[in-house]
TrEMBL record:
GO terms for molecular function: ureidoglycine aminohydrolase activity. The lineage of its organism: Bacteria, Bacillati, Actinomycetota, Actinomycetes, Micrococcales. This is (S)-ureidoglycine aminohydrolase. InterPro entries: Cupin_2, RmlC-like_jellyroll, RmlC_Cupin_sf, UGHY, UGlyAH_cupin_C, UGlyAH_cupin_N. The keyword NAD does not apply.
Amino acid sequence: MSGEPATHDPASLATTSSATTSREATYFAPRGGLPPQTQLTTERARFTTSYAVLPARTMTDIVTSRLPHWTGMRMWVLARPLSGFAETFSQYVVEVSPGGGSDRPELDPGAEAVLFVVDGELELTVGGSEGDGAGGEGASYGLGPGGYAFLPPGERWTLHNRSAATATFHWIRKAYEAVDGVDAPEAFVTNERDVAPTPMPGTDAWSTTRFVDPDDVRHDLHVNIVTFEPGGAIPFPETHVMEHGLYVLEGKAVYLLNEDWVEVEAGDFMWLRAFCPQACYAGGPGRFRYLLYKDVHRHAHLGRFAR
Ligand SMILES: NC(=O)N[C@H](N)C(=O)O
């Protein structure tokens, strides 16, 4: 071996190539050398009663879904209610090919949504006249990476990829819990770069980018971006009623999920049930950032009805 440490391309570790057409055996061969500092050390897929971890590597082509009234799309379902009453949201990673999209993306009139673009360019229309069947005269927005849209229940919206490259976005959905005497919030469209992060008290190493006023009780969900500089931490096990979906946008860390410390990295998804203890430590070398869903500002329901 030369004096230069070799580096591993993690993708090259998957030696059973889909391009293999014969029945020749393939073998994993260690290559030696020092893996890059960004590589994790453990395999992390987990499903427990209090949390789940879906590592980026488990999102492969064979487990995709398609939706009615969409063209040129495929998606990975990262979260959905399981027990029928305890969980609050669903979350998808959606890929839209050039020319793909939908004029009827959401079929449930009670569903609110947050869209967050991680790659490519999408055209979103919001509003528009009744009965035109195509989103019509709605206001039009270009959503590139960091683009964020909140769409209240019953909103008319359309989404299309009119660019030459594939676009990828997160779609987080929740059954809006309307409250007598409280208006539903209005739609808005923004970009992460236009929203200043709020530092957590007493530290520059942990901040939260909030897209709605945290005191606005019209909203019953928040989707924020949480950022840690290398060395930043949640220094105690948070334990609260809010359920979480947590998608790692950048970097890596060790995350406490109930009683387990789990390594996570960009592309991984975590689902945390209500009251699941959680903390983290961002060891670097770069920033650690994630998209964080939580349900907020409603009575703890009494188990009489499913939601
Ligand atoms: N796991 C987390 O990032 N939790 C946040 N501090 C939160 O619940 O807002």
